[in-house]
Fold:
Amino acid sequence: MWVLSILPLVGPLIAALAGVDVRAAYGTPAAGVSCAVGLALTSAGWWWARRLLRSASRPVRHR
Structure:
C-alpha cells in the first residue's frame, strides 16, 4: 500500500531528473491547490484502507 502513496512523489522527481523546472510546473496557485487536495485524498484513502484491513483482520464474534 505504501508504494501507491509514494508514486505521486516520483513524478516530480523524474521530471527534475529529466531537466524540467519543477518549481515552474508546481509553483502556480492551481498546482498548489491540486497538490493539497491530492494529499488530503491520499491521506483519507490511506486511513480508509487501514480501517478496512483492521476490521477484516478481527476475529468474528459469534453470538
The two ends are 34 Å apart (CA to CA). The chain has a mean pLDDT of 85.
